[in-house]
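Morning, I've got a small favour to ask if you have a moment. It would help a lot if you went through both lines with me. Thanks so much in advance, here it is.

***
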Amino acid sequence: MTAILSINPLYQDWLNLLMVRMRAPDGQECDRHVVEMRRAVALLPFDPVRRVALTVSMPRAPVMMAGLPDMLEAIAGLLEDEPEECARREAMEEAGVELGTLVHLGQIWSIPSVVTEKIDYYLAEYRAPDRIAAGGGLDEEQENITVHELPLDTLWTMMANKQINDGKLAITLMALRLRRPDLFSVPVE
């Protein structure tokens, strides 16, 4: 049976980097790096009347290192309270939208080979009057968020053209398409 023999911290701050010593069923031992992170939420607010959804973009160091200025993302944040309350707070902070009912899609490990983070995914309806603030993130977090309200057909076309690079946005958009195909006029390719 595989067993963890030891866990040694290498770096501790906003995230923790650990060295985990493991023993395989055959008795061999190996070391594995683990990035320890808190749970998170991700959501896609959508307006079924206007057939649009709210996404965000912001400067991300790893994305910029890959040569891209930014990318569209689902609204997301690290858990500070219950997942549903966190999703509501992040929607207001990032996109200035007040949400009604949230539909929980499930919880997915982001990168189980290296990272402890698990993400709760949600869909949430909103209407134009629910956009009561500018969004953009918190000044003290230096997020520099840009809010994008895009037609669902545009997002789906981007998905078909491999222009959606954020896994959280891909998951929530596909879930919306499966649950509410009536909101899309672009055919599935």
